Amino acid sequence: MVPTDPLLERLRPLVERHAELARHLAQNSTIADRGQFQALSQEWARLDPLVREQAALKRLLEEHEEAARLARSEPDRDLGLLAREEEIRLDQLIAACRLRLTELTTPRDPLEALNCFLEIRAATGGLEAALFAGSLFRMYSRYAERRGWTTDILSQHPGEQGGFKEIISRLAGPGAYAALRYEGGTHRVQRVPKTESQGRIHTSTATVAVLPEVPEGPERIEIPSQELRIDTFRASGAGGQHVNKTESAVRLTHLPTGLVVECQDERSQHKNRARALSLLTARLLALRQAEETERVHTQRRDMIGGGLRAEKIRTYNFPQNRVTDHRIGLSLYSLESLLEGDLDPLVTALRAAQAASTGGGGSSG
C-alpha cells in the first residue's frame, strides 16, 4: 500500500485520459476517421512516456514502503541492514524518476535546452573559502560527468593553499542550464579546516552564479565594437611553457556597463576571445532581463549576493554529514555522495518546488 503521494495525485487525470484515448483508438469508428485517429494517436503518444514513468514511480514507492517496513521490524540485524540499504537505493531511484516526471510535465522554457556558464567565487572565510570553492567546482564537474556534459574552464584564480579564489567554466550538454539554474546563491560550509589544530568548526562561504549561454538568434545581444575594450595578456593557468610565451589570454571590458570578463583556457587568442564574448553576452542578457522586470539589482548580483553567511541558500555540514537547502527546507544526510556529484536528489526537489510554485508551469529562473 503506497502512502498518498501528491505527484501521483496530480498525474491521475492524465493517466485516466491516457486510458480513455486507448479505448477510443481501439474503436472501429475512430479507426475509420483518419483525421480523428491521427489526432488521438498523437495525444496518446505524448502521454505515454509520462504514464510509464508514473507507473514506475508507483512501483518504486511500493517497494520503498516494504523495504522501510522491513528495516523497522526485522529482528535479524543483518537482514535489517540489508533492508535499510535497499531503502537508500530506492530513494535514489525514486528521486531520478521524479526528476523525469518533472521534466515531462513542465512546459519547455526556451532557456531549458541551453548550455550554461558556472561562476564560483570564494567569499567569507579566507583560505578555507577558496578550498570550499574548489570543492563546489569538483562537485559540479562530477555531476557534469554523470550527465555526459563537457566542462571547459574559461578562467581561474587559484587559492594560496588550494581551491580557487574564482573559477569560471562553461558546461555544455543537454539540460545543463535546466538542471543547474537554481544553484545560484551563497553556499555555506561548516567543517574543521585542515589548518585547524584544535579541531574547531569553521564557517565559510562561496558564491555561485549560473547564466545561460545565448545561442545565435533573436535573443542574442549584438555588442558594437566601439563599446568593447579588448586587452590581451599571458595566461597563468595550466598549459606548459606555451601560456607564458604568448599573449593568448583575452580580457573584454564592456564600456557602457563596466562588465569585465576574461578567458585564458585556450591556446588560441581567437578562441579565447570568442569564449569571452559569449560569456559577456550572457551577463548582458541577464542584466537586460533584470531591468525588464524592474529589479533593483541585476539578476547576477541577486543570484550571488554579497557572500555573507546570512544570505545562504544551502549549508554543507560536515560533522553531521548533512546538506540543507534553506529555500525548500530539505535536508539530506548524504553529503559525501553529493560532493561526488550525486546532485539529482537536490535538482529534482528544487525543480519540483519551482513547478509547484508556478502551478506546474514553466520556470521563471
What's the quick description here?
Helices cover 47% and strands 20% of the residues. It has helices at 6-25, 28-32, 34-73, 77-105, 127-147, 176-180, 242-245, 269-292, 299-304, 335-339, 344-357, and strands at residues 116-122, 150-158, 164-172, 185-191, 202-212, 228-233, 249-254, 259-263, 312-317, 322-325, 330-332.
What's the SSE pattern?
HHHHEHEEHEEEHEEHHEEEHH
- What CATH architecture of the largest domain would you give? 2-Layer Sandwich
Low-confidence runs? 238-244, 294-298, 360-365
What's the story with the biggest beta sheet? 8 strands, mixed
Task: Kindly state the number of beta strands.
Answer: 11
Strand order of the largest sheet: 2-3-1-5-4-9-10-11
Gross morphology: flat
Oligomeric status: single chain
CATH topology title of the largest domain: Alpha-Beta Plaits
**Residue-averaged pLDDT:** 84
Tell me the strand percentage band.
15-25%
Please give the CATH class of the largest domain. Alpha Beta
Distance between the termini: 37 Å
